[in-house]
Structures are given as C-alpha cells and as structure tokens.
Amino acid sequence: MTPIVKAFFDPETFTVSYLVQEPEGTACAIIDSVLDFDHASGRTNTSSADQIVAYVRDNELRVEWILESHVHADHLSAAPYLQQELGGKIGIGDQIVSIQETFGKIFNEGTEFQRDGSQFDALFRDGDSFHVGQMRGDVLHTPGHTPACMTYVIGDAAFVGDTLFMPDFGTARCDFPGGSSETLFGSIQKILSLPDQTRIFVGHDYKAPGRDEYAWETTVGEQKALNVHIGQGRTIEEFVEMRDARDATLPMPRLILPSLQVNMRAGQMPPADDEGDVFLKIPINKL
Ligand SMILES: [Fe+2]
Question: How many CA atoms lie within 13 A of 67 on its CB side?
C-alpha cells in the first residue's frame, strides 16, 4: 500500500508535519503537528496547524489519528487544536510515562499532573498496529533520542521522527534526559532492516553543507548507503564516539522549556490559575 504523503514544513522550528492519506479513500493521519509559539511574547498562534486544517477540509478528508513520534523539545504540538477542529485520536508511545515522570519532577508539577499517559487517547507499544481507513500502520519503538520515540510505518512509508535525518545531515542528538547514543544505534538498525525501497520521512531538516533546499524524504536504501553518521556499516563504537562528542557541543533548543511542559500534557497548556491565566515555568539550573 502506497499512502499519499503531504508534508508541511515549519521554517521557524525546522519541523516537518505529515498528513498521510489512503491512496483511494478519505481517511488520513496527521503526524507531528506544530503550534506556533513566540517565546519573547509568550503568544501562541495556529497558522501552521491551520494549513493542515485547510488541506483536510479542501480535500474532504477524515482524520482518524493525530500521532506524535515523541515528546518534542523544539516545538509545541498542535494536537489538541487539530483534534478540536478535525477530530481523530491522539496517540504516542507508551514510554511517555517515563518522560512524564522525569519532567514532572524537573518542573515540580503537583499531583494533579497525571504521569500515566492519560492525557493521550492511545498509548502504543512496540509491535502494535493501527488502521488509517484500509491502511495498516505498524509501530516500532525506536528510543535513543528520547526513551519514548516511536516510528510509525504506514504502508511503504516510515515516519521516523527524530532518529534518522536526511542522509547528508545524519542522526538526532541523544543528550536529552533518558537519551542514549548506544540505544539510538540499535533503533536505527531496526529502521534500516525495513525493505530498501521503504520511503523514510524525517521529523526535521536543517539543510546540510552544500544543500540549499530543505528536504525530508529519502529511503532505507539511501540511508544505508549514504547516511553520514551511520551509513556504510558504521560500527556502534564509531557512532557512539561521534554522537557523544557532537552532542557535547550543542546548545539546548530555544523552545525546550515551553515545549516539554506542553507536549508532556499531549499539547495542552498547564491548568489555568484562579484568575483563568495560564503560565509556563522556567526551572533555574535544572536542565
Ligand atoms: Fe525531538
């Protein structure tokens, strides 16, 4: 089965959101949506998500799933807004509970913050499957970037989130809490064991030296041959050494603090105070 895949690129956060549609039919899934957030003013807006809403309405599609590959640290999820506008169930990997545990502590959340994943409609385990109309989706647990990362394989298309990036850019960082370059190496091998012609859709693109255009679609075969971090049979030792050295030089993503607080709640803001106002926290010297 070859789904129709429409990409929506957000140049502010370099995120690619995907709409995956049945080749003949109207069922679709949305993967890794973006809620625009201006950090300086604390203002949100829905212009990125509204492009997806318009596409769904224009093409008279039916949204069955709103999926997250993981708890993103660089953008806020628009899943609740999309669900309100379009319907569909919000799904993520079941290891979300460990992320909620970790960041519930870091943000000193009270007991009203449930750490059981109940903010989501579905928690997927490795090996689970789901349907988008007639299409079957398979779920692979691919941790390393974070402990809860999932790859969704729908027909011949694999949505790998932040595991592999384009072959000329490489792989995702592994230095967030619970991340591990050794674990990521294993997860990538899992993805690379899919058939060579499997289309791979990556979660971000930052261009790469010598490339002027953003890109987000490649294949398993291309990754095996060309990926600058992992291709041509790179060993786990070589990968771990390279990845850890590189991660030690990377700054924290600009939106990590707002993103984590919102995304660990399935894209909901923290509860409003007695006046009805909503605030995000900045923990000092904790990350
Ligand atoms: Fe990420």
Answer: 32
